[in-house]
Design brief:
Length: 264
Amino acid sequence: MVSVTTWNINSVRLRLPLVERFLTEQSPDVLCLQEIKCQEHQFPHEAFRRLGYHHIAINGQKGYHGVATVSRIPFRDFSKHDWQDNGEARHIGVELLGEGKGMIVENVYVPAGGDIPNRELNLKFGQKLDFLGRMTRWADAIDRPTLIVGDFNVAPLESDVWSRKQLLKVVSHTPIEVETLQRFMDAHGWVDIGREHIRAPDRYYSWWSYRAKDWKTGDRGRRLDHMWASPDLAKQATAHRVLEDARDWEKPSDHVPLTTEFSL
């Protein structure tokens, strides 16, 4: 059994106590973090090692973005793509060497895309679509059992958002983003693990804005975080869970952890 968690932590140093709590209580084998907001030498390596996560791969930068994968299972660095095409640290891939040997875990942080869903008026939106386009060309050539996880910054299904009607023209749920993400899915035949276990149209969110006075009462969530697997690997996924309680922890991230268990 191998368990993998993805979590946009929104600053790993600021929220280290939350990560330590999560690892102590949940103990996944592999934890993929996005938006760590630090360089490699600033990453709290020792805190993870104290908890048994001795294997660490980081693609970081000063103050923004950044991804890190930590693991109790040995791995080797496998890939580091610049799908943003501007040097931003948004991807790191590893290959498991112990239990689950041969499984590739790709950890990605897709750009949010700004506020205006028009690439002519908003450079960031165009960059987001282009990022997904480069991911799609990469996915077309995958020939290994691969799990890609992270903050995709797209909520594709109607039941992935609190109101389709009100969010249809809001970045993260616009038709062009959904169509672009679907092309990425089709390029490798990815299986959306979350929606295999929490079937649409059941409610499934992973992010709630800080702007809400009471995130739980309003429940204006979106499913921005995803765990997708190659077809054969997806068949070995035995469980999937969302830790919504983490949104209530002290000084929380606006995202919560998703975990999938595999029988390998």
